[in-house]
Amino acid sequence: MKCIALQHLAFENLGCFENVLLEQGFFIEYRQAGLQALSQDEWLNTALIVVLGGPLGVYQTADYPYLLEEISGIASRLAAQKSTLGICLGAQLMAAALGAKVYPGKAKEIGWGQLQLSDAGEGAALTPLAGVPLLHWHGDTFDLPQSARHLASTLLTPNQAFAIGNYGLGLQFHPEVDGRQIETWLIGHTGELYEEGISIPVLRAESQQKAEMAVAAGQAMLRQWLAGC
Questions:
Q1: DSSP assignment of the chain
Q2: What is the pTM of this model?
Q3: Which CATH number describes the domain made up of 2-228?
Q4: pLDDT tens column, 134-155
Q5: Which residue ranges make up each domain of the chain?
């Protein structure tokens, strides 16, 4: 089985999800958005596609026209009911592909915090995430797609996760991140962190402190979701 992981930043990768995918028998291939486009055949016939995060806005298509190709590819894939996981920007692209609006949120949500699971979320693959601090790192948000089941929220972001059937999962947060490997994020997003007045030493320490529990929960969630695909 093949998994294509579509990256928008080199350091935003599959993280702790990679080991789970390998143990489940997937061969992983990374593609860099804007440089290594997926063919229509790949969008439709790859066993699993994971669309990862990044600092772009879904609405920045004039500057980054390949976002339109991603939205179109995701739309065709979801219409064909093929296993698709979107994380942060990936979830926003999924929402756009399903006809929902994506736009700047009330404020940036950066740091560790728990989710509030909906009834559907508690009965879905997100159950292992209940009560676990997870990494949030986004400025944009989206309306819930019409065909989606709402799974989770936070006080700042009502739409943190949604499901499409048993084959599509959009996650605004970052359960793939291993907090022990957070340094690349702290370097890569340094401008944003300074702009938002976030203490890098505090975020580094908190990431390391919460890593073990978050990794275990994120991996359990992924295993549970894959089992139901």
A1: -EEEEEESSTT---TTHHHHHHHTTPEEEEEETTTSPPPHHHHHH-SEEEE---S--TT-TTT-THHHHHHHHHHHHHHTT--EEEETHHHHHHHHHTT--EEEEEEEEEEEE--EE-HHHHTSTTGGGTT--EEEEEEEEEPPPTTPEEEEE-SS-S-SEEEETTTEEEESSBTT--GGGTHHHHHHTHHHHHHHT--HHHHHHHHHHHHHHHHHHHHHHHHHHHHH-
A2: 0.97
A3: 3.40.50.880
A4: 999 999 999 999 999 999 999 9
A5: 2-228
